[in-house]
Amino acid sequence: METKSAEDKAYKAIIRQILDQKYPPGSSLVEVQLAEDLGMSRTPIRNALRRLTTDGFLENPFNRSCRVPNLSRKDLEKLFDLRLLLETKAASDAALNASAEKREEFENLIAEEREGYYTGDKDLYEINQSIHFGIAALSGNIYLEGVVKPLFWRSELYVFF
């Protein structure tokens, strides 16, 4: 039986391959090929693909193979309008809940992101995700946090493509 850590590795590896543009928008992701490419069995790949579909990062039209969503201007506008509303609320609530320690943690993440932007030696994707997900978590609203994550994932496709 595959462990959760194998699924997490597959999850992150699939995201990384998509964001590295190995699979552009509209591409189908074939479980067998991904397992071979990543040197993993199909079970963690299958579970990771399900999670990525649930998270809104991938589509599974007609319950067939997963694919990277096609991108459009109209979708981009709707997505970022909704992110603006929800993440503003999350940031407002997080600011009310933040201890001095948490504020310092976010300041450090922002400084790390800024440094990585100029030097190119940091994984900006991981840092940016930590900032957005951390703010959503600090909002103290599990429903808001649950909605922010899939919107973030989907918008990353626009950022990278």
Describe the structure.
The protein has 161 residues and is an all-alpha fold. Helices cover 72% and strands 2% of the residues. It has helices at 4-19, 31-38, 42-54, 73-97, 100-119, 124-138, 142-160, and strands spanning 28-29, 66-67. Helix 1 (4-19) packs across helix 3 and helix 5 (100-119) packs antiparallel against helix 6. The radius of gyration is 17 Å and the shape is globular. The N and C termini lie far apart (36 Å).
Offer a few descriptive terms.
2 strands; 7 helices; mainly alpha; two-stranded antiparallel sheet
In short:
It is built from 7 helices and 2 strands. It is mainly α and 161 residues long.
Low-confidence stretches: none
Total of DSSP H or I helical runs spanning 4+ residues: 7
| Overall shape | globular
Provide the gyration radius in Å.
17 Å
Q: Strand-residue fraction?
A: under 5%
**Structural class, from secondary structure content?**
mainly alpha
What is the quaternary state of this protein? Answer: single chain
Main sheet attributes: strand count, strand direction, barrel closure:
2 strands, antiparallel
- Helix residue percentage: over 70%
Q: Mean pLDDT score, rounded?
A: 91
Could you state the order of secondary-structure elements as H and E?
HEHHEHHHH
Give the CA-CA distance, first to last residue. 36 Å
Largest sheet, spatial ordering of strands: 1-2
Number of E-state strands:
2
